[in-house]
Structure to design on (598 residues):
């Protein structure tokens, strides 16, 4: 690693830490400023002011805002995200239990989207203004216009209710949790839902990026020298054409996580998204903060890795 | 050929424009167009499939789905327009200031923009709307305040490219104020790009609103929104497919319309972009 690259990474890590503090502080303040509090959800029904005050004191919500944030941030830096207001379980444990299914869903959706989108985007660019191009453009335009939750429901309607091919929910039946084939069958529809939405954006970018590269002088020169068409595309054009696609994959993570919240809700998928939705409705502040911190960390780390991936793909880019 | 003629000649743009116009007319004329009241229930008419009396069928309370889809367009479009207007206002201010002044202002404002681009919008909006209460205005405000970052990036890019041009130098030499140069010379030239981005953003904000409604954080019943109609129909999917299908189709067609219109506008306003666009 060069000294320039090391300095660049150190700078970005410092900025990432600042971003995490900023995002968590904003959310922490908003939660405390919001009307009502977790006591109403915890007790349910009628309760006196004294009882509410006791609960707020027990949860530490009666202390000054900055003290509360400082206590949370110092503990979070040590890996302690506190305990759920509702269940009393450690937040880190709750998150770790749900992280696997979410990573499995988002990872599979991302792979599916790339495997389909990149070749189709290349085909649309190479066979520009043909039926392939029109078809790929239509698919990508349709894909970015679908509400993911509705797409999921329509897939359930088709594959589960009408054709009886696939199960409608994302979790295996009781007693079959360890059955790999059953788990895969349950994962098909959620992965397809999340993947199809991402696919559209990737395909659009692959096509436009490759079209840009195909117009460059060095591609024309390679063609003029008699290099076969396939070789020009795969060896000369695609390597440069894929750089913006890497950015789009990095930038798509927030959308992917947002899409996972809805997809997990539609398919009852036991992941972070459903944990977050439940915590929001129950005003479970520690769980909301924990999930938010995790999501922000993943997104920021992915952005950094995307930038570093540039170096590998394009040696002309230097961070010195 | 001027932009309006180019837009009319583009099949995509014209089709998108037509869809957008129909949706706008539907939302505006909902009270006159809807065949029934949006909350009129009839338990004898529960879960009836599409018929001549109920073109899109009825839901679990016997309410006419066509009526509720028509009224739902109002909610989606109101939230979409309000949120997009706010996002464009904030994005133009931030991007214009960063691009025109450059230096520390640019660095600082763009880092804030980066933060907003890195946070999953739906997740942040979900938390804030749940905490502060779901209402049409709250939803629109929060969606607008979270989705301005792409507008800021585009406006900044336009201002950076324009600020060293001769006509800007001339205005500066004539003693024009920063505000005048920014508004009259830079932002006015960035307007085509902002209009295109706003059209595409409208589709996105409608998608976000419908997602929130699906999670139970949209407008509250009995006022219909497309998202809460889809979720209400989820339980009847096996026996009454139409309850979820038609409201979702309305979201899809509307968002597709705005996306087509935005693509058409981009091609019409900047033909140079056409070859590279998807």
């Amino acid at each position: 690693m060069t000294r320039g690259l090391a300095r660049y990474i150190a700078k970005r890590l410092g900025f990432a830490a600042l971003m995490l503090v900023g995002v968590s502080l904003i959310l922490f303040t908003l939660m405390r400023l919001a009307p009502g509090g977790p006591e109403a959800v915890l007790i349910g029904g009628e309760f006196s002011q004294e009882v509410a005050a006791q609960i707020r004191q027990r949860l530490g919500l009666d202390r000054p805002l900055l003290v509360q944030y400082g206590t949370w941030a110092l503990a979070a830096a040590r890996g302690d995200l506190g305990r759920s207001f509702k269940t009393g379980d450690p937040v880190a444990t709750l998150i770790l239990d749900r992280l696997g299914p979410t990573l499995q869903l988002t990872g599979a959706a991302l792979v599916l989207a790339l495997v389909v989108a990149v070749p189709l985007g290349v085909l649309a660019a190479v066979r520009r203004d043909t039926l392939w191009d029109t078809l790929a453009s239509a698919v990508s335009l349709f894909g970015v216009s679908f509400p993911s939750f509705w797409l999921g429901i329509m897939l359930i309607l088709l594959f589960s209710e009408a054709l009886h091919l696939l199960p409608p929910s994302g979790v295996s039946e009781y007693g079959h949790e360890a059955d790999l084939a059953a788990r895969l069958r349950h994962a098909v529809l959620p992965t397809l839902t999340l993947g199809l939405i991402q696919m559209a954006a990737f395909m659009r970018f692959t096509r436009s990026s490759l079209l840009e590269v195909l117009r460059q002088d060095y591609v024309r020169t390679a063609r003029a020298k008699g290099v076969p068409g396939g070789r020009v595309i795969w060896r000369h054009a695609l390597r440069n054409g894929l750089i913006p696609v890497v950015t789009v994959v990095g930038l798509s993570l927030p959308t992917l996580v947002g899409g996972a919240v809805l997809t997990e809700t539609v398919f009852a998928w036991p992941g972070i998204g459903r944990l977050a939705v439940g915590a929001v409705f129950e005003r479970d502040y520690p769980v909301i903060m924990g999930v938010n911190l995790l999501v922000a960390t993943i997104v920021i780390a992915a952005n950094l890795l995307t930038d570093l991936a540039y170096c590998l793909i394009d040696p002309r880019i230097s961070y010195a | 050929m001027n932009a309006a003629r180019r837009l009319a000649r583009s099949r995509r743009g014209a089709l998108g424009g037509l869809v957008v116009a129909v949706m706008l007319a539907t939302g505006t004329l909902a009270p006159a167009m809807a065949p029934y009241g949006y909350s009129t229930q009839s338990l004898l008419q529960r879960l009836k499939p599409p018929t001549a009396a109920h073109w899109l069928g009825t839901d679990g309370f016997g309410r006419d789905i066509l009526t509720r889809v028509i009224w739902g367009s109002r909610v989606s479009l109101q939230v979409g327009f309000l949120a997009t207007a706010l996002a464009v206002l904030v994005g133009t201010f931030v991007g214009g200031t960063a691009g025109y002044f450059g230096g520390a202002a640019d660095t600082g404002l763009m880092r804030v923009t980066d933060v907003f681009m890195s946070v999953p919008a739906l997740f942040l909006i979900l938390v804030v709307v749940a905490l502060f209460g779901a209402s049409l205005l709250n939803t629109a405000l929060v969606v607008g305040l979270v989705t301005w970052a792409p507008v800021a990036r585009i406006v900044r890019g336009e201002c950076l490219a324009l600020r060293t041009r001769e006509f800007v130098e001339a205005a500066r030499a004539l003693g024009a104020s920063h505000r005048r140069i920014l508004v009259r010379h830079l932002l006015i030239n960035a307007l085509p790009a902002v209009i295109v981005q706003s059209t595409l953003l409208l589709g996105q904000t409608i998608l976000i609103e419908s997602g929130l409604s699906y999670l139970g954080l949209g407008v509250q019943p009995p006022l219909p929104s497309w998202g809460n109609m889809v979720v209400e129909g989820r339980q009847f999917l096996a026996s009454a497919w139409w309850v979820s299908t038609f409201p979702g189709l309305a979201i899809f067609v509307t968002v597709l319309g705005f996306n087509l219109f935005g693509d058409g506008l981009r091609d019409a306003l900047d033909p140079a972009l056409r070859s590279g666009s998807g």
Summary: Chain A touches chain B through 55 residues (CB under 8 Å). DSSP finds 14 helices and no strands in chain A. The first helix of chain A runs from residue 3 to 33.
